[in-house]
Amino acid sequence: MKQLWLLFISLMAALALTACGGGNSNESGEENASGSSGEENWEPEHSLEIVAPSGAGGGWDTTARMAAEGFEEESIIDQGFGVVNKEGGGGAVGWSYIAEKAGNPHHLFVASPPLLLIPLNGQSEYGHEDFTPIANMISDYGAFAVREDAPWEDLNELFDDMKENPDDITVIGESSPGSMDHIQFVKIAKAAGVDPQSIKYVSAQDGSTMTNLLNGNADVYSSGVTETIEQVRAGEIRVLGVTAEERMEGDVVEDFPTAKEQGIDETFVNWRGFFGPPDMSDAEIAYYEEKFQELNESNHWAETREKFAWNEMYMDSEEYRQFLDEEKESMQELLNDLNIQGE
Question: Does any domain span residue 166?
Fold first, then answer.
């Protein structure tokens, strides 16, 4: 009887241990689930930083600052935002800085076509594949402007002269050769029958492009639409054409003819969006996607687009990734036409 009693006690103890073990397993499982749930609902733990890989006042800087302002004014993100300028290398300095933040989702940066072009030129070791696309927010377009007293009334007259006397016409832009201001002009001119390698392009990255145009050191200014508006208002320059699919809406810009309506069947989109560092988790990406979509649909962003003559062009992370891969192929073809190869 005593042995039976001891056996009974042993069995009960074993059951109790198994139950405890099962409890620990469940508890552990609950902790994992909780951790997973926390991961699924990631939120920033402290203030955030948006890098504009350029100096103050340009398109990247303006986009970054308006986004930060929108997140705050619309109460979309509770944490504060700081915008930091990392100028140099056509963006490469800023990209290098973000690459060192791998796995830290509190650092973002704004980018546009140079993120494709500069690496293809061999001027940066980092390309779009090295970062985490989060959301594209807007599209801007290129504009080709000349002095008010220039002899050309439209793009076709300009391109006809370039075909006959390419050495007599200088195109100026702020980006380096093989980057955006150069490539957008090449893309439209090529569609009009101009030999890409005959185009005489000079870069003025010191902000003197408009001065050089107005004083006669250059004949054509390749830039963004926004950069031409004030000088058009002042009557100092004329925009011969823009790279948009159709006429833009808004004061002044509605008068800018597109290349397409002049019979040149080509466009160039200056997309602009936000990226994170390498190695972001799905939960972190999902968090920012939701927030940027909310910003895109806000009154603040609608007013911002109208103010700067930007068009809506929202893409989520996966759409953005696919778009960038396709754009990279297109940019590579244009660089091949110019015989510009990366190292």
Answer: yes
Band (40; pLDDT cuts 50, 70, 90):
confident
pLDDT in tens, 273-302: 999 999 999 999 999 999 999 999 999 999
Residue 207 lies in a domain: yes
Indicate the number of domains in the chain: 2
Q: What is the pTM of this model?
A: 0.82
Check whether 10 has a pLDDT greater than 70.
no
Q: Which of 13, 266, 55, 233 is nearest to 145 (CA)?
A: 233
Long-range pairs for 319-327: beta carbons < 8 A, 24 or more residues apart:
319/136, 320/133, 320/134, 320/135, 320/136, 320/273, 321/133, 323/136, 323/271, 324/116, 324/128, 324/133, 327/113, 327/116, 327/271
Planar angle of CA 14, 15, 20, nearest 5 degrees: 100
| CATH number, residue 79 | 3.40.190.150
Task: For residue range 74-129, list pLDDT tens digits in order.
Answer: 999 999 999 999 998 889 999 999 999 999 999 999 999 999 999 998 899 999 99
Assess whether 161 and 249 both reside in one domain. yes
